[in-house]
Design goal:
InterPro entries: HGLS, YdcJ_bac-like
Pfam families: HGLS
Strand content: 5-15%
Organism: Pseudooceanicola antarcticus
Structural class: alpha+beta
CATH architecture: Roll
Bound molecules: 2-oxoadipic acid, nickel (II) ion
Keywords: Dioxygenase, Iron, Oxidoreductase
CATH class: Alpha Beta
Number of helices: 18
Number of strands: 11
Enzyme class: oxidoreductase
Distance between the termini: 38 Å
Length: 463
Amino acid sequence: MTHLPADEIRSLFSRAMSDMYRKEVPQYGTLIELVRDVNREMLAADSDLRARMDSAGEIARLDVERHGAIRLGTASELFNIRRMFAVMGMSPVGYYDLSVAGLPVHSTAFRPVSTEALQINPFRVFTSLIRLELLEDRALAAEAEEILSRRKIVTDDCLSLIEKAEAQGGLGASDAEAFVAQALETFRWHSEATVPAETYERLCAAHRLIADVVSFRGPHINHLTPRTLDIDAVQKKMPERGIAPKAVIEGPPRRRADILLRQTSFKALEEPILFPAETGTEEGTHTARFGEIEQRGVALTPAGRALYDRCLAETRAAAAVGASGEGAGGYVAALDAAFESFPDDHDSLRRDGLAFYRYRAAAPLPAGLQASPEAVEQLLASGALVADPQVYEDFLPVSAAGIFQSNLGTDEQSNFGESANREVFEAALGREVVSEMALYEEIERESLSQALAALAAGEVTPA
Ligand code: OOG
Ligand code: NI
């Protein structure tokens, strides 16, 4: 039997999620339109950009969402979600400790790992697990655990299809379609809470994230994120379309050579929900769902990342953003100032070992040059070898905390002590998380040795 490639199942899934979310959160549809308009203006104004994106096959998938996020309640939920995403060719990459920002969660990103799979559809899901062990109120933690033990977030039909996929190494086309429809059920919004308003209030008092996870039947998708070619323009134009953006764009400042990830979101909506009550139901509201945009740049090496972390820490020590966004202007100025010491062209980033590249042979080996690792600089200078920046495919814990913070209803930045517990997270997951640095390193190493071999053999891939 032929299986539908996992990459295609992921594409079906991300499209289904997008359609569902647009219906559920109309303001997200407005954001998508704004992003599309700004992307079009950019492409119309910049023919170089258009040509580059065209040749890289980027235009067609420009409007495809890049990521979403969910929050889970228990170890067994994380275990089953890992199995569900595996059917779509998504592996857990990276461990993010959000306790550094005072949030009782730790996270990973389920994403495709190979270059080919990322090119077909890069959809990722930032997945957090709440940490009831960090709650001071032990009785409330036990109550939350008991409530969570009663829910099942993956449908029985979905579980059977996951088992089938695991047993036969994939799914046929009709099973894959049924799987996507069933998987969607897990991420749907439930406007009815499973706990009385009084319980919800106590959970909120412990932490709003805890209430968001414990009070509902399942892990509703809380945002989706398209890619923008100009995040500053979209941020500025949001209010014109009736959208309230968070106070500052997270991540590095605007640069000539984009690094890592810049992201911003619109504030989460306050939505009506019903609580079970002794007689019928009681009306209330819950804030969880929002929309986000992202712009990605080159992946940084451990040295580059350490420099990034230092520049960011310097910024945050110099300028703080308050709960309703006060101090945002000072923050942006401090960010620009702190990153002045960060090289801002690809030659320097590469030569200084700060960023990851992918090499390719672009012209025949010039006379007098060897296709050897020692000659890389000369080969690059001659144009025989080209180094393309590797796009950063992952997330940033401080930025993620800022996004969490703003969708919990505050722009206030916080810095807390850390209590990472990767072992506990991986035990729940049922496997180790993939190291994102190892993935970038391998792509760089492999591409260089292949490009050198191609040059030596006289095989040249035109740009
Ligand atoms: C996830 C927030 C983090 C990102 O892009 O960094 C995030 C959440 O609110 O559950 O989505
Ligand atoms: Ni996000």
